Amino acid sequence: MDPAGGCPHADNARLLARGAVAPVVLPGDVAGMAVLGHDALREFLAHPDVAKGAEHFADLREGRIADGWPLKTFATVRGMTTADGDDHRRLRSLVSKAFTARRVAELRPRVETVTEELLDGLGRAAAEHGGVADLRRYFAMPLPMGVICGLLGVHAEHQQRLHHLSNQVVATDIGPEEAMAANRELVDVLGAVAAARAEDPGDDLTSALIAAREEDGDRLSGHELIGTLLLMIVAGHETTLNLITNAVRALCAHRDQLELVRSGGAAWADVVEETLRWDSPVSYFPFRYPTRDLTLDGTVIPKGTPVLAGYSAAGRDPAVHGPDAGRFDVTRASVSRHLSLGHGPHYCLGAPLARMEAAIALERLFTRFPGLDLAVPEPELARHASFVGNSVLELPVRPLA
Q1: Gyration radius (Cα) of the chain, Å
Q2: Rounded to whole angstroms, how far apart are CA atoms 259 and 239?
Q3: Phi, psi of 349 (to 5 degrees)
């Protein structure tokens, strides 16, 4: 795996042509596997003999993974993403109340208000910089970050720093010292957030988690509280940020699809689903581990191997999406058959919120700025330095009315 990331689709296509499962070399010459094919990935994500707990990671358990390994946080953070069985169900139940259909619907007016305020800011930024503004900085990042921080009771003063640190967490090209420093600082910031909410509880998820811990100390440990906050911050804004960014890039490059939506031939929700399939906001997500030697699509994955979930590859698998799987088409019959938000017991809790935020953001953006287009050619856009997150670092646009 290239630690520098880049656009994954050409490599994915080459790998998929060879099979649904591929051996990979992770940073630090750690041997792993990647599941790329849609059907194989769907089976793998829900397989009863596949675990998330780091105790199943053979190289880590046997001391062959160094401190500062850039992917170590994915394996060792305490929370839903590394829990199995009863522990996973316990942690998930504590958070799930914040993402019910009713609670998400209640957030809609807030999302709409924040969206309009950010669009005002995007317009002002463009006016101040020769008609060009970075859509990620002024719109796609602060929208989901503001919403998730509001849910968690995180003050605005922390948001920019949390975004930077979460970028460091998902980076795969940084050195050991930088990785360890970013993780320490992120834990410190989230610890300060938890301490503030413990001292002054509010109507927010962090306060609710702390209350649950105090009511029954066995329900949520201190490490699990910080791990849950870390997961919520990173997953709650990074994926939606990439989703909105990738959708805008797709629509600017496929004006016929944009006009189709504007004319009522498709819905903004269709744009969201096709973007999730065609250009998944997460390319390869670490980790799952077979608890026994597992044969998947004819390939043996040895027990204890760290396995990447290849969401971006599965989204363009021609076996499921047809020979034109590489084409962006919001009317595609298989548009909702992607796995980009997961599958099985670890399916993304925040999926309804991410879908709502993205659909509102896109509709309001192209209503306010119908002539919006990229300010630089697509090939010139710098990519994330990660094979986990899948997007560009900046998205300069001309927001024209």
Answers
A1: 21
A2: 26
A3: -65, -35
* Cα 284 from Cα 282, distance rounded (Å): 6
Beta strands (DSSP E) in 217-363 are 284-290, 294-296, 299-301, 307-310
Q: Which residues are CB-neighbours of 357 under 8 A, at least 6 positions away?
A: 111, 143, 144, 147, 240, 244
Domain annotation for the chain: domains and CATH numbers: 9-398 (1.10.630.10)
Per DSSP, what are the bridge partners of residue 30? Answer: 26
Helix (H) or strand (E) holding 50: strand 50-51
Give me 298's structure tokens.
């004819």
Cis bond before residue 74 (omega within 30° of 0): no
How far the first Cα of the chain sits from its last, in Å, is 42
Cβ atoms within 10 Å of 245's Cβ, excluding its own: 25
Determine which helix (DSSP H) or strand (DSSP E) holds 312, and give its type and residue range.
helix 311-315
Locus of tokens 């003999």: 49
Rounded Cα gap, residues 242 and 312, in angstroms: 13
Residue 43 corresponds to which tokens in the numbers above? 């089976």
Residue 350 and residue 236 in contact, taking contact as beta carbons nearer than 8 Å: yes
DSSP H/E element including 294 = strand 294-296
Distance of alpha carbon 193 from alpha carbon 149, whole angstroms: 10
Instruction: Give the pLDDT means over successive 10-residue stretches in the chain (401 positions).
Output: 90 95 95 98 98 97 92 90 92 84 89 96 96 96 91 85 83 82 87 89 86 66 84 87 97 97 96 97 96 97 98 96 96 87 93 95 97 94 92 95 76
